[in-house]
Design goal:
alpha/beta; Aminopeptidase; 2 domains; 3-stranded antiparallel sheet; 26% helix; M18 family aminopeptidase; 26% strand; 9-stranded mixed sheet
Length: 418
């Protein structure tokens, strides 16, 4: 694997995941790492003055866009964009989260996206996200292990192993204890403010267990979908030295909800940034985009050893076999023949393996930001990602080699030289 040590990479991915329990934390951690490496944080309300060689980062809520401009720019300089997302399926605190039932203190939550509900039971959960005080100040907060969604004991539900289907309202409200502070009190304590000052909050639950390597080169963590791709983009940007294209990481929020927000892929964030960057550098965006590419990077499904019939019989990628090239005849993924050839050249140059992924016809696949970006921006796009087991579980699984392989391929892709 060219220039990427898998063990070092997976350790850094673990640190990135630990620092990113919510989309807001992920955007902040991405910006922090890049600014520490010499990137300049730009304010969207300020006028932008850019020159060849500049490296900049912009945060909008739980989304972040970063760019590395090559040393020479012409009117048709292309963009090489890695698109990913910062959110994951979870539970979000309701506006009035304090809840009490039969002597138990609980937190009132709403299901966010499409989590595997059963995987969230009997885990120590923390709450993380942002608080906004009455004066408009934003505080990023996290509680550490605080709550648990408890199973009903098998003695009280003898059919639990054959018919467990939790009610999305009744059964998923986590317990905090039998007395003590409410959940907003814990969050306010982390921010160093009084809970009475909280005017709004965007706070989600996350598995508090640390990422872990185990077994035969396996790696488990919360939020691999899709922090494995965000981290690959950050790593590739940090290794970027030269190229003919403007390297861009665009990590959006709200993908798990359909991306329709001001910080989602269906929103104007990327289009706004590309337009402003092009004008600042003298690039003709209409001429530049046809020669540009977007690599939509989102986790995909490895073949499940116990349920192989759920996968296509001739496309059964495995963990450790390299990143996926995701293809769908109905444009749920955007990859076409030209994109396939680009990915093959990219992985060959990066010296990493890759695997094609196609869904079983009887098991409709999900989608990604790829079709949204291609439609909104008009840029050629292909879909790739790290193969996982247990996708949308509270804790997902991959091989230690695959995230580094994706980052190595992304680094080659960013150069625009393949």
């Amino acid at each position: 694997m060219k220039g990427m040590d898998a063990t070092t990479h997976i350790d850094d991915l673990a640190s990135f995941i630990t620092a990113s329990p919510s989309s807001y934390h992920a955007a902040a951690e991405t910006a922090r790492r890049l600014v520490e490496a010499g990137y300049t944080a730009l304010d969207e309300t300020a006028e932008w003055h850019l020159s060849p060689g500049d490296r900049v980062v912009i945060v909008r809520d739980g989304a972040v866009i970063a760019l590395a401009v090559p040393g020479r720019v012409v009117a048709t300089t292309p963009f090489r964009i890695l698109g990913a997302h910062t959110d994951s399926p979870t539970f979000k605190l309701k506006p009035r989260p304090a809840l009490a039932s039969n002597g138990w203190l609980q937190a009132s939550v709403e299901v966010y996206g499409g989590p595997i509900l059963a995987s969230w039971f009997d885990r120590e959960l923390e709450f993380a996200g942002r608080l906004v005080t009455r004066d408009g100040t934003v505080h990023l907060v996290r509680t550490g292990p605080l709550a648990r969604i408890p199973h009903l004991a098998i003695h009280l539900d003898r059919e639990v192993n054959s018919s467990f289907a939790p009610d999305r309202q009744r059964d998923v409200q986590p317990v905090l204890g039998v007395d003590g502070p409410e959940v907003l009190d814990y969050l306010a304590r982390d921010a160093g403010i009084d809970a009475a000052e909280i005017a709004g909050h965007d706070v989600v639950a996350v598995d508090s267990a640390a990422p872990a390597q185990f077994g035969a080169s396996l790696f488990a963590a919360a939020r691999l979908d899709n922090l494995s791709s965000v981290h690959a983009g950050v790593t590739a940007l940090l290794s970027f030295e030269r190229g003919d294209a403007i390297a861009v990481l665009a990590a959006f929020d709200h993908e798990e909800l359909g991306s329709e927000s001001r910080s989602g892929a269906s929103g104007p964030f990327l289009a706004d940034v590309l337009d402003r960057v092009a004008r600042a550098l003298g690039i003709d965006l209409v001429r530049s985009l046809p020669g540009s590419w977007c690599l939509s990077a989102d986790a995909g499904h490895a073949v499940h050893p116990n349920r192989p019939e759920k996968h296509d019989p001739t496309h059964r990628p495995i963990v450790g076999g390299g990143p996926l090239l995701k293809i769908n005849a109905n444009q749920r993924y955007t990859t076409d023949a030209v994109g396939s050839a680009l990915w093959a050249r990219t992985c060959a140059a990066a010296e990493v393996p890759w695997q094609p992924f196609v869904s079983n016809n009887a098991v409709p696949c999900g989608s990604t930001i790829g079709p949204l970006t291609a439609t909104r921006i008009g840029i050629p796009t292909l879909d790739v990602g790290t193969p996982l087991l247990s996708m949308h579980s509270a804790r997902e699984l991959c091989h230690v080699d695959d995230p580094a392989s994706l980052a190595a391929a992304a680094a080659v892709f960013f150069t625009g030289l393949v």
